TrEMBL record:
One Pfam family named in its UniProt record: VKOR
Transmembrane segments: 59-80, 92-112, 118-140
Any one GO molecular function term: quinone binding
Main location: membrane
Entry-linked InterPro entries: Thioredoxin-like_sf, VKOR, VKOR/LTO1, VKOR_sf
Coiled-coil region(s): 204-231
Protein known as: Vitamin K epoxide reductase domain-containing protein
Keywords linked to the UniProt accession: Coiled coil, Disulfide bond, Membrane, Oxidoreductase, Quinone, Redox-active center, Transmembrane, Transmembrane helix
Amino acid sequence: PMRRGARLRMAGLGALGFVETSYLTIQKIAFGGAPALCGTQGCQEVLSGPFSHVGPVPLTLPGALAYLSIIALALAPLVVPAPEEGDHPLEGVTKVGLFVVSTSMATFSTYLMGVLGFVIGSPCPYCILSAFCSFTLAALSWRGSLLPLQRALKAGAAAAAFTFAATVPMYMTARAETVNLAANPASAYKMGDAARGARQQLAAEEVSDDAAAALELLENAEIDAALKEKRAPKVLTTSGKREMKIAGKLREKGAKFYGAYWCGHCYEQKRRLGAEAMKSVQYFECAKDGQNSQAKICREKGVPGYPTWEIDGELHPGEKSLAELEELLGMM
């Protein structure tokens, strides 16, 4: 039988992977993209771009289900009462199940790491953590499954071949979507939170449809130009009285704003405050390839992700609402 310790280790890794992929799935479904603390371009593209989903289903959802199945298969013989004599009736089937599922997960992680390294060319901490869990689970399963060698090789080859075959159409579809987005980079940049935030702001201000459409066209043109020039796009929204009060307090406290030119969350944060207010904010470009890059300062500060506010010497990562900024500034 598979050792109890091996099963518990697999269940623990499965729980870690399940928590991570469940969090990313909720973030994707509820907020439309990668977490605000996801501070690399690779992270943003893998979790928000064409490689993040199959149709309407985020890839993190089947990942979460796979990790959940690992937990169930690993713990089943330990929690279900066993007969007084002989092997546990669930021992054999769960060993095969763990072997097949973990091998499939490792194969899929190999595909994702290939996309990350050779297509996107930028690291993604969440993806690397998930790959570590998948590869370790496969290693534990191969080591502890105690399946006959010939049977193990056949089962492993079948699982890997099936998973690899499934990745081919997924890759082709994602590449086609990437080509389409490349023809209109503004649409890719404003996916998720930025686009939704713009619609909410426009609706709140009761801007006419014609004015909203005009603003959308201007912003798209500005974003296209900014991405090509690798600079942060200019903010075209107007600041109100509340935003200007916040800007005054930010200036008074010497607040700093850390972001990246390709970061949609950063752009939405700036839009929320408006052009006039953002003139009072000291902005640091953290992308290595960005215009006037200050990546060294960002590293020295230990900026965890984009956007990040520095207020009174403390770092506050993530996109903030006006109320949250007011609270951080002691205006409430």
